[in-house]
Structures are given as structure tokens and as C-alpha cells.
Amino acid sequence: MKKSFLLLLVVLNLSFTVFSQIKSSKELVKKYNAYFELERETIYTHLNKTSYFIGEEIWFKSYIYNGRYQTPYVSSTNIYVSIFNESGNLMESKLLYATMGFTHGNFLVDHKFTPGIYYIKTTTNWMKNFTEDLSHVQMFEIVGNEQEVTKKLSDENKYDLQLLPEGGHIVENVSNTIGFKLINEQGNGVIIKKGTVLDEKENEITTFKSNQFGLGRFTLHAKKDTKYSIHVVLANEKQITKPIEPAKGKGISLKVNATNGDNVLIALETNSLTLPDLIGKQYDLLIHRDGQLIKVKVDFTADKLKYLISLKKSELLSGINILTLVNENNEPIAERLVFNTLKTPIKEIEAAKIVSKGDSSVITLKSNTTSEIKGNFSISVLPASNEAYQYQSTIIAIFLLAPYLKGHIENPYYYFSDINSKKLYDLDLLLLNQGWSKYSWDNIFNDPPSVNYKFETGFQLNGSLNSYKHKAGNTIILSSSENQIHESAIIKNSAFSFDNLFLADSTSINFSLKNKNGKLIKPVVYFNIYPNGIKDDFQNLSSNTKNIFNNDHHTEEKVYSFISSGRTLLDTVELKASPKIKEARKKPLITMYSAKYIDLMKSDFQQRHITSVIRENGFDVATSADNVWIISKRNIPGRTNIPTIFIDNIPLYGNFKQLLNLKISALSDIYISRTPNPGESPAGSIKIFTRNDQGIFSVINKYQTIDNLFGFSMPKKYYTPNYRNTNSEEFLKLGAIHWIPNLTPNETGELIFKIPNYSSETINLYIEGMSYDGSLWSKRETINLAK
């Protein structure tokens, strides 16, 4: 476990509230550690765009992150991706297999998706154990008939003006910082052209204005028994007035400056009425995140009302730091979020080279990291004029901000691309106006998470044998050529189990009982597989961003003229042929490297034994009256020289006796590879297929086969939709040029990829990436291909 804790001795002071009976500082730390003892996964899913037509695919890439250590969550394998409609009804789900913190997939937009708003949710079973939902939810739209989708906004937009005192409350006769944000019905910020703070006699105390997201702050030295209000004027000249909450007679104000220099400055101020209550009491400033806790002692003195604490950023946690002030009763009384810009996993990336020739362009990206990039990237390529990518989140915002914030982050690309002092100031405004973090202290003290849901790694199979009488040395064999599985398990009390299995959706598995002499017997197996399906819901529908999409393109005519009929409805075509046309169906389900194909049905020697064909193609074959031995002619030091052999995709497990009298006349094809294949012998692979697929029963009838399993969905290879006209206005607004889900750097750390050249000379790259050391990249870059 990584621990980078800071011990600073600083003299400070603070206030009080009623919370929970925590008897000591040690107990507080113990409860805090217990709450974060179970590690949490965070998921970000990168969509290739957010507006789709019927006939297109929703392409996506998911990244899984460990927020505590800021590294990929490599233990996660089972990732659930579901699509819900605007009413929260489940439309479609898939289970994806993740490796090293990455996975990708796709959904076909067919006619069950009527035009409208939808949500794609990415989650795991383990996430259900936590109060804080770290599932990732994004909104997208299916473009269609304007009358079906467009929701007219009222002429009189409603606004929500919120005031958030820094630290949590306003105190009399001290300098208070008050954050504010103004949002509209869609949850987006509204610019305040001018704001004024007024006292109860309409005297102007101070003025302010907001940034482009409707966020800002002002300072108020609140006097006793005085009422205050703010009056704001918007760009459309609409005016809003709101009272400021009354100041408290006792308390401590907390102000933080984290945007300048290498230090975070924390100013605490109290009044003369409060100070006597603070002297001799132990207060602590907690700097914490994800189970990492730094505790700074705070002492108050009789002659001092103002205190300044300086914390070095180099000694704080990377990224978000939650600052919580607790009183002598260990009750949290003030809280503020800051972002440590000196220590973050954020890296920059940019286009270093563009070579356009003919119908394609080759783009080279480089990062500013000094170390070699060892990671994985996804890139969506769209016309620069596109309206089909309404970016609601980025990998940086989801991993470094969203787990700690309660509210919506508008335009997350803004804060972490081309970073400058204004963007850092705006980021601090965002955090100031979030108030307390997403993690409730009431939950931390009273409701630690427990393991009610399993951490899933692949599939778990538990089985039992019917009417089985135990014999020493017997084992159960589980095999699946489609899934590259060949495992054995010990049988105890007629029961057995297999863990961490990879099972692709709609594939089959085989069971066989093997005795101590290696003989296979067909068993009768009863079993359960977990997980056995997808059960997910979506209850937290938010209307905050439901109108982020441009509705100008919701016309039915454009739907059916945009994509050629060749791609509008079709996904894959299943052909049902007569027995004479069987060759394509019978080819191996696993790709074989450097395989030699032999059509045995065209052989002139139909009565030859198949062992003679194997002998002629790089293997030594020996036979006896009742057995067959096959070894590779290649020398493989320290590794087996016995190949993997299949008949109709059923492995023989080194027992080749079934080949002894097998003649070519019973076979249709053979594939012979002397090159190692994934999950198979380093000596090579041989795959034999019988005529009419009868060999699985006539040659090997010693397996119990289970078909059509629930399993991991296999992603398709990306294809570009068959757009009718890539010069059209519709394509330039809503079309997709390319999608690269798994781009890895070359030996020099460069990311190189090729894209097709369409009519758009200017394109947008939407880049998201994560490396194995936890570095994060997120960039939107506009490129001119004509230069």
C-alpha cells in the first residue's frame, strides 16, 4: 500500500457543531481508515460521439482506475455496460472483459432505439457495496423525427442562484468568502454581468461578476444584526435578488488560496466572542482523500484572532485534497476541496506530425512526459464542424474530480487543457462552489461499507456429479476450444469448482471425467455459473443536461438519406446453407498463426490414415496396436514438444488414441500450425474437421457439452458507416470519420495512426488515455489536414 503522509506542526484555531460521539482523535482516524479499507473502482467510458442515427454503432472504450493510488485498477475484469432510455427502462446490456484496466465494445443502433435521449451506464458488481455511486453515466441521443425528440423550452427560463460560504457558514465580524453560482434549467452556468452586495438599507457593500460558467466569489465582513442580499444582472438584462443567510455569532471562517505558487494557504479567522471557547481545546485540520489522511494540530491563543497556515503542495496528496476542520469533539465543522496542481497524473499530448497522401492521412501524437509512455489510448475523429460530440466528461474529470464532487462539471475539457492561471482560478471556483465533498462524515462515522456483492473476476463455476462414486485420482476436465480453456479440478464429495474462467457469450463448454490412467468418461454434471446474467437499474435520472444537444438536426428526412441502406439496418448476416456448403462454418473458431490448410475431400488417397498427413507436415508420429504418439520435430528447450490437437474443436488433451484408425475418408479439412497459438502448446496446433460434423460423436463421445452460455461480449472491429455523401452538411455535422479504441505507443513513445480523408480538411481529435503508471491524457485538438 502506498502511503505518503504528511506530519506538520502548525498552530491554528477553529469552531464547533454537533455531530457524532467520537471519543478521540485516534478513533476518528480508525473510523476513517475503516471506511476506505475496501478499495473502490472508478470507471470512465469514452464514446466515439454522442449523437447517432439508426444503423450506426455506438463505439466506446472504458478505463478502470484506482483513485487511492491513481493507477489502473488491473484486478477488474467484469465490466457491465447498459443502455437506458429517458424513462430509466433498460434497453440493452453487455458484459465486457477488461484487462490491465481497459476494455472496449459497441452497440448497434437498430430500430428498437426510437429517436430520443438515452443513457449509457458503465459499472461493476463490486461498486454496489458503496454508498457513493462511482458508476459512469453518459447521455447520448438517437437522431430522428423532430416532433418526437425536440422539447421546446419555455420562453421564460428558470434560474437557480446559489450562495455557498467557504468552509460552510458565515461568521459575524470576520472576513468571509462567499462563493456563488447561477445555473439555468439545463444545469449550465449563466453569466452574471454585474452583481452587487447590499445591506438592509440598500447600501452597496461590494460588487462582483461571474466567469463564463456562472461561478464566482466575493468577500463579506458581516456585521452583527445586519441583513444582506445580493442583486445580479444577467447578459439579457434579467435581474435576480436573493438574501444572504444570516451570519452566526460564533464560529470560525475558513479561506483557502491554492492557485498561486508552491503552497496552499489556509486563513482561519474567529471573533472575540468565540475565542474564549477555543483556547485549550484541540482542533485538527484533516487533509485527506480515499483513505489517505494527514492530520495537522490546531491550537488557539488568547491574543490572536487570525491565523495563516502554509502547506507545501509537494507534501500534499496528488490531485484533490479535502480539507476538513474538526473540533475538540472530533466533529467536522468546516470543509473545503482544493486541487494540487503541483502533483497530478495529468500529462499533455499534441499532434507532432501530419502526412496526408491520397485518400488517407497519418497522424503522429507525442506527449510531454519525460518517461516512456506505456499505456492505451482511444481516439475519436470527427469533422471539425461536428455537432455530434457534446463532451459531458473526460477521463481526467471522472477520475480526479467526479468521485469527490456532488454536482455537474460543465465543460470538463476546459480545466485541464492548455492550463494557465485563469483556468486554475476557475477550477478553484468550481471546487469552492461544491461545498462539502461527496463523502458524508455521517457515513464515515456510522456506516462503513461491507462486502455484500462479490468482486467478480471472470466466471465462477460450481458443479456436482450425479450418482458419482469417488475413486482416487479422478479429476473433472473442463474444456472449451472457443474460449481456449483446458482445466482440471479435484472432485471432493462429488463436487468441484472452477474460478476465473473466461467465457465468451453464446459459446459452449465440455465436461469429461478423467481417471488416474488418463481415460476419459462422459459424466453427468449439474452446475451453476456466476454471474449468470445482467441485472442493472438506473434510478438517478438527471434533467441537468437533457438539452445539451442541438435540435436543429432532428428531421426524419435526414435520417434515411444520411446512411446508405447497406448499413441502416444490417449488423451481421447469418447464412443458412445446405450441407454441401459447409466449409466456412467448419473452419476453426480460434485464429491459427501460420496455419497450413489441407482440403482432405480433394485428396486422391481417401483410405490413408490422418496420421500420415500429420507426419508429412513437420511432426514425428509413432503408432502401436492401441496408441498414437505425436511430437514436434522442432527442439523446444524446457517446454513440451507435444502439439495441441482438436477434432471438430474438441481437444484431445494429449491422448491421441482416437487418431489410430481415423481415415481421410471421414474428414473434410485439417489445419496444421507449427507456430504457438494463444492458450495452446508451444509445439504447435492441429485442427481436424470431420465430414458433416459427425466426428464429435463417432470419434469422441466422452464429453457432456453445454451450449449457448451467458458470457463476455466480443467487440467488433471498427467499421465506418456507409454514409451516402461525405460532402453533405449532415455528414459534416453528425458523421464520424474514424474511431481507434486501442492505440498503443511505439518504442519511441509516439502514437501513430491512419485515418481516411473525407471532404473535411479540418478535423477534431478527441483523445483520452491512461498509462500503466496512472498517467492520464485528455485532449481535444483541431487539425488542418491541408497544411
TrEMBL record:
Top-rank taxon of the source lineage equals: Bacteria
Q: Which residues form the signal peptide?
A: 1-20
Q: Does the keyword Signal apply?
A: yes
The protein's UniProt keywords, in alphabetical order, are: Signal
Q: What is this protein called?
A: TonB-dependent receptor plug domain-containing protein
